Amino acid sequence: MGSVLAFKENSFNLSIFLLALLTTLCLQVLSNLANDYGDAVKGTDNENRLGPVRAVQSGLISKESMFKGVIIASILSLVSGVLLLLVSFSSFDLQFILFLVLGILSIIAAIKYTVGKNAFGYMSLGDVFVFLFFGWLGVAGVYYLHIQDFNWIILLPATSIGLFSAGVLNLNNLRDIDNDRENNKITIAVRLGNNRARYYHLLLLVLAWFCHILYVISIGDSIWEWLFVLSIPLFILNVRKALTHKDPKELIPSLKQLALGTFIFTTLYALGVILSHA
Questions:
Q1: How many Å separate Cα 55 from the centre of its chain?
Q2: Which residue among 16, 174, 183, 255 is buried most deeply as judged by most CB within 10 Å?
Q3: What is the mean pLDDT of the chain?
Q4: Is residue 249 part of a domain?
Q5: Domain carrying residue 106
Q6: CA gap 238, 234 in Å, rounded
Q7: 138 secondary structure, DSSP code
């Protein structure tokens, strides 16, 4: 999304786009490995967990090996991120240092979601950090790397992506709400309770759509930029399942559906922007 917003303003760099994708992938892998390790160490991953099999909890990988995997993924994320900054900035200036610090904070955040005594995923802060790092920092940061400037209005689509990402996490937490409560993992879903967490999910997705629609209304160039509305049935189905599910296991496919829906949403918007500039 950050790259698409830059392309819309005629400031697109293919190398930045590809390295941003690689860095994002490394951070996502790091986050998954760290979550597997952290929840296993804390005992949250146990026989009562409803989600996909976790490597450490199931005995497929030892805690020591997974910890090494976290270290390797951290190094790869840092290397990829530094390469991204070297391509983006012409010199080792204040901008470079600022983004390097933000990149290091991203690595720390990916690990600290479940790892350590003060893991923020256990303190009802997971949604906030996902929103910030997957939304505002991820989208607005990549946009800035392309264009070397900032426009406040791009926080609208950045907010949309952040809210969709928080929605994926909320579905995960809704699925695991009982096990998390029993293991003192106080997520937003645990704090709200099952019923209110369902409507919280509705709020996340409705606000996400509202923000992006407001952005397109504000500075859209052509009708093509409305292609993203073709993805709305996926989100309607997702909200319906979140509101009406009887068994938490029913939410397992919904996590993938929302992640895929977000990808399709962004891809359709990107296609619309490209067609409007053709």
A1: 22
A2: 174
A3: 90
A4: yes
A5: 7-276
A6: 6
A7: I
